[in-house]
UniProtKB/TrEMBL annotation:
Top-level taxon: Bacteria
One Pfam family recorded for the sequence: Acetyltransf_1
This protein's name: GNAT family N-acetyltransferase
InterPro entries noted in UniProt: Acyl_CoA_acyltransferase (IPR016181), Diverse_Substrate_AcTransf (IPR051016), GNAT_dom (IPR000182)
UniProt keywords, alphabetically: Acyltransferase, Transferase
Species whose genome carries this gene: Listeria rustica
Length: 129
């Protein structure tokens, strides 16, 4: 999937720090970064309050299975509760069975009856005209 990544260091700096549209937690162990999670607030008209959308959760392969992923999700749950959010949600690729198994073990439930839609690139620009 790396061939689909178009983010640059400059774009990340602008959107994460200058415009502050998302938050990042970097996990460290023995002074080394072991992973990160990137998230932002969304809003649920069903719940009438904000939620947290988990955009990325990454743990280095060499330290997977040691509880870092669980620690990231736990911290996000704490933040959601502290901020009065009604939910924590994310998308997962349907072929990523190890992640699906992990999320299910954490108590996550797949959303039934929902389909994800996206408008991007030229289609987005065309629609905006």
């Amino acid at each position: 999937m790396l061939d689909q990544v178009v983010a640059t260091e400059e774009l990340l700096r602008e959107w994460l720090f200058e415009k502050a549209k998302a938050e990042v937690i970097i996990g460290e162990y023995d002074g080394e970064a072991v992973g990160f999670t990137l998230f932002f607030h969304n809003f649920s008209t069903f719940l009438g309050r904000a939620g947290i959308y988990l955009e990325d959760l990454y743990v280095r392969p060499t330290v997977r299975g040691k509880g870092f992923g669980k620690a990231f999700l736990k911290r996000l749950a704490e933040i959601a509760v502290e901020r009065g959010c009604g939910r924590l949600e994310w998308w997962c690729l349907d072929w990523n069975q190890s992640s699906i198994d992990f999320y299910m073990a954490m108590g996550a439930e797949p959303m039934e009856d929902w389909t994800v839609y996206r408008i991007a690139g030229d289609t987005l620009a065309d629609l905006a005209r």
